[in-house]
Amino acid sequence: CVRARPGSACRQARLDRLLTGRFTALPTMLLLLALTLYLTIAGANVPSEALFALFARMEAWLAGVLTGWGAAGWLVSLLCAGMLRTLGWVVAVMLPPMAIFFPLFTLLEDAGYLPRVAFVLDRQFKRCRACGKQALTMCMGLGCNAAAVVGCRIIDSPRERRIAMLTNVFMPCNGRFPMMIALIGLFLAPAGLPAALALAGVIVLGALATFAVSRLLSATLLRGLPSAFTLELPPFRRPQVGRVIVRSVVDRTLRVLGRAAAVAAPAGLVIWLLANLPARGGTLLSACVAALEPLGRFLGMDGALLMAFILALPANELVLPLAMLAYASGGALARAEDMQALGALLRENGWTWLTALNAILFSLMHWPCSTTLITIARETRSARWTLAGALLPTLLGAAVCALTAGLARALGLAA
Question: For residue 359, which of 299, 413, 407 has the smallest C-alpha distance?
Answer without folding.
Answer: 299
